[in-house]
Structures are given as structure tokens and as C-alpha cells.
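To: structure subgroup
Subject: Chain for Friday's discussion

All,

I'm putting the inputs and outputs inline so they're searchable in the archive.
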Amino acid sequence: MSVADVFNRRVRGFRVVEVVGLGILLSLVTSVYLAKTFAGSERQEIGRIEQEIEQEGVRKRLLEAEVAHLEQPRRIEQLAQMMQLQPIAADHEIAEDALIDVARRRELPRAPVTAEPVAADALAADGPEALPDDVPPPPPAAPAQSPAGGVR
């Protein structure tokens, strides 16, 4: 069979080359249509995400403006005067690194035990879950006294 026979051979009145070419053309048209359809859905998704980003940017700017308003020194000073707060004494100041030790030494008030069970949702809304570092250590034992009445 020669190359000329492939181009001239007919099946039901159509040349084989024409049938193969039509099949390739149909597959290309279908693949282009599917690619454009998927690209359109992706384009919609990208537009939705860009709109969400823009909304979050607006929300961020509003929150920054609110923080700037709440942190105004004049406003804080007025609140402090209204609540009759005084400046912190120098002997009550502490470094940031020592805050954990102070929190561990301080005895936290315990909530009274109630007979009613509390829903788990209500507990979760009150605050964060306690971590092992958040639990205060037991209070130190009182120093023992010698028989003479002095401290050993």
C-alpha cells in the first residue's frame, strides 16, 4: 500500500484522510470549549477572592482607625481621671520577663462549686482553655517555729 492509496482510499464516499481530519478537528474544538469553560469558572473564583481581599482591606483600615481612636492619650487620660486611677508606683513596676513568675506566685480566687452542671458551650465562651502554665502552684508552707517561739 502506497502513500497515494491512503489519500485516495474512500469509505462510504468519503476519503479516509477527510474522516481522520474531521475527527481531529472535532476533538480540538471540544478541548478548546472545555478549556474556555473551566477558565471562565476559574475567572469567577478569582473575582470572588479579589472582592473578599478588598473587603478585608476595608475592614482592616476601619479597625486600624478604631485602634487609633481608642489609643489617643487624651481619651485614656480622661478615662483614668473618671475612674480615679493613679500612676503606678515605681516599686510596683516589673520587667516583662518576670510577669510569669508573679502570676505563678499570686493566688487566684477560685470559683464556688455549684450543683448545676454548666454547659460546655458556656465554659468555652468565657475564656481560653487553661494551659498547664496557667494553673497556679500551691501556696508555700508556713515556716516552722522553734520551741522558743522564733522562726527556724
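Points worth raising on Friday:
The chain is about 55% helix and 5% strand.
The first helix runs from residue 3 to 8.

D.
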